[in-house]
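User: New here, any thoughts?
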Amino acid sequence: MSFAAASLLSLIGLVGLTLGAEWLVRGASRLAAQFGISSLAIGLTVVAYGTSAPEILASLVAAAAGYPEMTVGNVLGSNIANVGLILGATATLAPLAIASSVLRRELPFMIGFTVLFAWFASRLEIGRGVGLAFIGLLIAFNTLSLRWARGDTDLSESPPRPGQSLTRSSVLTMVGLGLLLGGAQLLVGGAVSIARSVGLSEFIIGVTLVAIGTSLPELATSIVAGLRGQTDLVIGAIVGSNVFNILAALGLSAIIQPIPIDPALVRFEFPALIVFTVVTSVFLYTGKRLVRWEGVCLVVGYIGFIALVFR
């Protein structure tokens, strides 16, 4: 496949992923609103799952196609992009407040799962046993999130308008999922071809093109929600997305095929993920908000990370 054809394939895949995620989140959010779920709960579950679907599907396709390096690169790059690029860009446009409940409950889980991911990676392989354990942790986290959601008093104040039937919302959700599936396959196929044609490794393409591309739904959702003052939705979506990327994308991919870890990643990319996670957490815990100058710091740090990836 030529470079031009591969680039076109990747572009089509990105468009499919973006549209699919938008429609999936819109349809699923309408379904959730009909049951009176809080905005934080929607962010942690519906929005986080919907916007993480590109990362999960792209990782599964890459693992099934025999490119586990892209799976690791996609998760690493996406999680760093979530806290560095997405949270940073959103806070730069509109400072984000964070609920005390998130600081006590969900954020410690995200930190813990990130450290766990890095620790298993230091063993230079994520095997099927670890993949199964990740899926078990995912189920436990979802169970706790839903239990906590029942105690949240911040119920959604945006019930569906007349005409937003369960059928229409369900169809929109399913069409979005179909676009995500097709977009993931096209994106991974095009990215691998690009990597080969220009002499770059699958990991480099995974941690940059694929990671940023599959993070676009989170970026668009977070900026719109941040500008509308729906900060719980933004924080919930990012925390949930990082958790799902690690537990679902890596867990399912490792079950399909054990994932070898390049020792070079343990020396740079994984420490970078830990640093971004810790710095973001410190920003959030001090003052219970992410202000503009902190957002700028995260974005600048992310740009520096991308520059060093190509060093």
